[in-house]
Amino acid sequence: MSDPYTLLAGYLESARSESLDIRVLQRYVSAVRSAGPPSPGSLARIWPGVVICLSIPTLSSDIIALLVDDVISPLISAPGATSWQEIKTVVGDAEALLTTVMTETHDKIRQTAVEFLSLYDFSAGGNGEQVIRNVVGLVQNEKLSEGIISRVETAVARFLVSGAPFARSVVITNALEIKRETPETATTTMARVQELVLLILRQKSNSTGVDDIPPELVVFAVASDDMLAELVTMQFYEALLQLYLPPSIFMVAKPAYVEIARIYSSSFASSISRGAAGRTLGRLGQLRGDVFALIDAEFSIVKNLTLRDEVDRTLLALIPGDYVALHNPAIVRNYPISSASLVEVLCNWVHSSDARSLLALDSQHLLRLPVPELLRVCKELATTSDGALVLVSMPAVMDVILTKKDSFGYQIARLRGDVIDALQEIREDVIGPYWAGRIREAKLEGPWGHAGSNEARVDVMDRAA
User: Fold this and answer.
1) Which of 31, 179, 349, 365 is buried most deeply by CB count within 10 Å?
2) Cβ–Cβ under 8 Å, residues 371 and 412
3) In terms of DSSP H, where are the helices of 213-253?
4) What is the arithmetic mean of pLDDT over 26-30?
């Protein structure tokens, strides 16, 4: 049986503008995609045909996209399928590929050129440092599409893990130079620099971690007359919190979080900006409580939060309940348990023993919640031994969890199953033999079907797997 890449190459090499049928091409491409991982040398087999096709003046964008997205890109991304030496021999060297990025008119072809550059072999000689500088420098060209810039980011990520001893320092140095050269009004470039910084921070150095990051590289002006720039920068500082980084990074970035707190506290800020600021500050309180506490001491954010304000509720759904209970106990004490619209806040607070001690958390109030919201709260409580103890102290609530009704829809059945799964992880000596037995029975019954049915037992096996 002929190799599908050879068959595709033959079709492409025989192509003429009047005979190139996208439906026929799709069949060849489909055969290539279903043939499994490409073998080394596949690029060399098909590239001459690709060049012939690309030289057709009337070639449609759909055909170019098909060739790039379904043939060339998978060859580049498949481990071991394509090497830099093959690319250099068959397609062109780094200089030629960079020229393609800057001069080609079709976006897909430019994207492919950047993808080829991402496989540059720094051990094969040549000016690898200049290649990195040129690729990183592409982020300054605001005329380049986000599709191309996405490939640039992928290439930079590969450079950072390439093993080349100079790659990381060259990327850092160039990112810093671009940041210094870029005016704050060039919002697109600045957003791209922020993505570069996140890439660098994700790929920590084996020897120095992130100690080689200049402080200047994690400090960006947040407040801006351009709302989009403001929102993008706040997203950067929220994304920073999702990375496992040393406390020193967040102390360096503290002035930016102070700016975000100032936006949140401003009566002149738009609701959109305040909402973004609230989410970022909430994540800060959730993940870097030390930095949040310093900022809160200056702005008294938590002390002035109310459940009436929608943006405040976003913040309250993220900040740890023990912090809120300490700095604004009245808001916890007066929380309306039976309010379905506030359940996100309650789901956050029930994880805190300090908050639970202030809440009127009893069957009378909880059972006024609609069943889906009640089960969401129960699911959060069931994740810890302390929370499970609260649940088993409310038999009426436990009965709702453990008693299946045929009228339950999928959402409720799934939530009920999640709560039972979580409760089954709690030790029997914590919740007692009675409730442990009831939970086991409910687990065997399964959240769907009827008790004792084959469907229920299959479900138990699936959920236990």
Assistant:
1) 349
2) yes
3) 227-241, 247-252
4) 90
| 235 and 333, same domain (yes or no) | yes
Other CB atoms within 10 Å distance of the CB of residue 155: 22
Domain boundary among 306, 330, 361: 361
Residue-wise pLDDT for 145-193, tens only, equals: 999 999 999 999 999 998 888 999 999 999 999 999 998 888 999 999 9
- Alpha-carbon distance of 465 to 461, in angstroms, equals 6
Instruction: Decide if 23 is inside a domain.
Output: no
Claim to verify: residue 381 and residue 353 sit in the same structural domain? no
Spatial distance between the Cα atoms of 412 and 122, rounded to a whole number of angstroms: 56
Q: What's the confidence (pLDDT) of residue 16?
A: 66
Q: Does residue 274 sit in the same domain as residue 256? A: yes
As a whole number of angstroms, the distance between CA 202 and CA 210 comes to 9
Q: Is 368 found in the same domain as 357?
A: no
pLDDT at 133 over 80: yes
Asked whether the beta carbons of 171 and 156 are under 8 A apart, the reply is yes
Kindly state the DSSP code that residue 216 receives in the 8-state scheme.
G
**The tokens 């279903």 sit on which residue?**
34
**Amino acid making up residue 302:** V
* Helix-then-strand count for the chain, H and E: 30, 0
Q: 447-457 pLDDT, tens per residue?
A: 543 343 334 33
Helix then strand then coil, % of the chain, to nearest 5: 70, 0, 30
Find, among 268, 200, 267, 187, the residue nearest to 235 by Cα.
Answer: 187
At 306 the pLDDT is: 94
Enclosing domain of residue 457: 362-465
Report residue 460 CA to chain centroid gap: 31
Degrees, nearest 5: CA angle 390-396-401? 80
The DSSP line for 90-126 is: HT--HHHHHHHHHH-S-HHHHHHHHHHHTT--GGG-S
Token digits for 456? 């229920």
- Could you tell me if 271 and 402 lie in one domain? no
CA 206, CA 148: separation in Å to the nearest integer? 29
Q: Residue 105 is encoded by which pair of tokens?
A: 């008119």
Whether 441 is covered by a domain: the verdict is yes
Whether the Cβ atoms of residue 232 and residue 253 lie closer than 8 Å to each other: no
Same domain? 291 vs 240: yes
Same-domain pairing of 419 and 292: no
- Considering the domain architecture, whether residues 408 and 315 belong to the same structural domain is answered as no
- Does some domain include residue 196? no
Helix axes 187-202, 167-181, angle to 10 degrees: 160
Residue 104 domain-assigned? no
Q: Specify the 3-state DSSP secondary structure of 48.
A: helix
If we measure between CA atoms, which residue out of 241, 272, 113, 139 comes closest to residue 193? Answer: 139
Closest CA to 332 of 362, 307, 311: 307
pTM, 2 dp: 0.84
